[in-house]
Structures are given as C-alpha cells and as structure tokens.
Write a structure and sequence with these properties.
Two copies of one chain form a homodimer. Chain A is an alpha+beta fold. Chain A has helices at residues 3-10, 90-99, 101-127, 130-145, 162-169, 173-185, 202-208, and strands spanning 14-18, 23-25, 33-39, 41-47, 53-60, 64-65, 76-79, 83-89, 154-157, 190-192, 196-199. In chain A, the strands form three sheets. The first copy, chain A, has a four-stranded antiparallel beta sheet with strand order 1-8-3-6. In chain A, strands 2-7-4-5 form a four-stranded antiparallel beta sheet. In chain A, helix 2 crosses helix 3 (101-127) and helix 5 (162-169) crosses helix 6. The longest helix of chain A has 27 residues, at 101-127. The relative contact order of chain A is 0.14. Chain A binds chain B through residues 44, 46, 48-50, 52-54, 56-57, 67, 69-70, 73, 75, 101, 104-105, 107-109, 111-112, 114-116, 118-123, 125-128, 169-170, 210-211, and chain B through 44, 46, 48-50, 52-54, 56-57, 67, 69-70, 73-75, 101, 104-105, 107-109, 111-112, 114-116, 118-123, 125-128, 169-170, 210-211. The structure holds a DNA duplex.
DNA sequence: TGGTGTCTTTGATTCGGGTCAATCTATTTA
DNA sequence: TAAATAGATTGACCCGAATCAAAGACACCA
C-alpha cells in the first residue's frame, strides 16, 4: 500500500505482537478484523477430519491477512514465528475499499500473486520427489527472506519446525530430516542449531529443486 | 457479469469454438486477448524441464480466462473438451476495468474462488491417498458439471483422459485406472464407454474422497 | 548437576504407488 | 472385414517414502 493509504488505515488500527503457534484466523470463527503483517511469517493450513494436515501457504510481511467479502474457506492462519500484525475492523476496511479503487486493485494484485504461488506449489506437491521438495522449500524461504538479494549465496533462519516443513511439502518429518541431511552431506547447505541455514551456492540448490 | 457489462464487452468480441487440445494461452507467448468461457472445460497446466506435468486448475463456463495486469506465470491453458470462447483485446478489457469498478470486483471474486480451489487441491495433492484423490476428482467434476444439483446422484461425462486425470492428481495413468476399477467394483460409480460416469450416491463418493 | 521434555536424527522394515510390459477395447482407415 | 492406431486395463515387480522404534541434541528448570 501507499504511505497515504496506510496512514488512513492506521487511524482504526491496533498493533500487537504474537508468539509462534498463536491462531490468527480461526478455521470457522468469524473474524471481525483484517490485518497487515508487519514482520514474521504466518502459515495457512487446512486439516482433514482425521488430523492429516497440509500447509497451503506462507505469508510474509507486508502481506495482507484476511478475506474481504468472503467467509474463510476452512483455512486457518497461525503465527509460525514471532509475528507483528496491525489489525483493523472488517467494516472499516470494506468501507475504505469502496472509497478507494486502488485499494481493491492492490488486493487483486496480492490475490493473483498468491494464486500463482499456490499453483507453483501444486507442481511441487504433485510431481516432485522428496529431495526436490525440500530443496524447493529452502529456495522459497531463501528468496522470500531477502527478496532482492543479488548475491549467489544466502544465510537465514528457518521459520518453522521439521514437522511444519513436512506438512507444507506433503511428506513426513523423518523424510524431511533425511533429505536435509543429504543436502548437508552434499554441501548444498550448511545447518547450525537446527534452524540456521547457509546456502553457499543458490544455483546448485536451484538445480536440486528441479529447475 | 451483468448483462449490461456483457453487452459492452461483446462490441469488441470475437467468438470461436476450438477442439480439445487447442492451446488457448501459451506458456510464454504474450497473449493479446482475454476470454470468457461460454461452454466446455479448459485445463491449466505447468510443466517441468524434464517433461513432468501438473494440471493446476480446471476452468468451466462462465469463467474468465486470462491475467489482467500480469504476465502469464508459466501456466498454459488448453481446451480439455470442445470449448466455445468469447475473446476481447487486452486493451479493451483494461480500459473497461478502469471505468467500471464492479468489473474489477468481479475479477477479485473469481480470483479468490480460484485461490480457494487451488488450496483445496493442495490438500488433495499433499495428503490424500490415490483412492481418495480419484474420488475427489470425480466429486469435483460432478459438482462443477451441475453446480446446483439437488439430487443425491449424478451422471456426467469426464472432460478428460486418464492421463490428464493423472496429471491433475499427481499420479500415473495406471494408478488412476486401478482406482477407478476399484470404485467400480465397490459400486460407488458406474462407467460406460470410458467417459460416461454415473454416481448413484454422492455421499458415498464423498466418504471415499476423505470428507 | 542432573532430570525432563521437545525436537531432531538415524535405523530397520513395510507398503503404496511407480515402472515396465502385455492385453483388451474402440474407433478409424483401407 | 480386416488392419491399424490410440486409449484403457491388468499383471508382475520394484523402489521411494511411510511407519515404527530407538537414540541423540539441546533448552529449561528444579
């Protein structure tokens, strides 16, 4: 959004910081607010009746969180890391959208981006091997953590646990762990402290991801 | 869209009917037009360098086809059945969107619907078994073919081949065939002529799909 | 200092779906 | 009517990832 729009919005806004695991949008509960992510990572997930879970998207700052004009379609949003959000009442947003067409346009742009990302991920889920999936995940985090990184290497913290990664990739925890070990042994990545990852050569990781 | 909007659009439109297999939006080629699907089914797919393919969405009448304000993100669109489309030049649409905010709103609505469907499918791809995947596919076609069917049974034609179904479900042709046979033996479905399917009890199919 | 719980890694085994190959069924063509 | 072709089914076997189980690593706290 433009600074102008943000100023307008901030009049009705409340800020808060939440811990990993906090439910931001309940699966069925009617949320009365929309939010902007200031910092941190939010995971969107769906669950089957028997408990099988699939993470269907990750949202990074400065994404918008919430569904104007829609009930939530069985998706729940939960903080993956510490997350700072800025929330406004549903009514305020919907009124503002009516007044400012650009706002709706921005929303369309973000939704189209999310749709593209969802479809990319469908290819990953449906057609890639476990090794390619894990590499794809690392690449996704690497590029989103530093969107305009120009170097051929990166270093970053994984925003989630092995179990969450598995739920994002349609694998088990054990398989994720084994594939990470494999990438580590091939020196495609280095890991310290289970969470901190260094990728010395992004092109090599990209190869492993199937591109 | 409203009849009014459609009349406006039709002034610049051209209609055509294409055969199954026709490429409607090339993966990289800059398409100059947007289209409305009048009838038929269009499949959207992504392909990896080595030929692995994933169908990432199906579009039915009266969906809109094309990406305003966007380059195509490596997705190609191809007629699955005979398809009637109504196309307009890119410039005409983008001008009209500027003039009529409702049009952009409609577009946002459709995009949100597609996003929900994509995320539902991610759960199917990532977490369901082969049997559940095939049942989910049949259910998807059944509900889209007759969106406001009130009966507990349906009968319809599959809009695509076993290979296409496999590419949609992240399976092989052979596995799709085996699972269809299994459902047939359990009398969850009946198939004549490879394409024509009857579902005598939608609730039972729904169970098989994992709901 | 040691204990407790959580997360991760590693190992052994199993199994669902893939691969390869043969057969069947329809439709088209001669 | 037969031959050719394309799509679908079925069978035998194999492999990648799941499952089950144990051990390691680390933080937190008594």
């Amino acid at each position: 959004m433009t600074p102008d729009q943000l100023v307008q919005l901030s009049k009705h806004s409340t800020r808060r910081t939440v811990e990993p695991g906090t439910e931001l949008v309940g699966e069925s509960l009617q949320t009365k607010t929309y939010s902007n992510i200031i910092s941190g990572v939010v995971k969107l997930s769906k669950m089957m009746a028997d408990g099988r879970q699939q993470i269907v998207g990750l949202q990074f700052a400065p994404d918008f969180l919430g569904r104007p004009f829609r009930k939530q379609n069985g998706v729940s949003a939960e903080a993956a890391t510490d997350v700072k959000v800025c929330s406004f009442p549903k009514a305020a947003i919907e009124r503002m959208i009516g007044e400012m067409p650009e706002l709706e346009h921005k929303l369309l742009e973000q939704t189209l981006t999310e749709l593209d990302e969802a479809r990319d991920w469908m290819l990953t889920l449906g057609r890639k091997t476990a090794g390619e999936k894990v590499a794809s995940f690392l690449l996704l985090i690497a590029t989103h953590a530093f969107p305009d990184n120009e170097e051929d290497w990166v270093t970053f913290d994984l925003p989630m646990s092995r179990t969450d990664i598995a739920d994002f990739l349609g694998l088990t925890m054990e398989t994720v762990s084994r594939q990470l070990t494999k990438l580590r042994k091939e020196d495609v990545i280095r890991i310290v402290n289970n969470r901190h990852v260094t990728v010395p050569d992004l092109a090599r990781l990209s190869d492993k991801a199937g591109f």
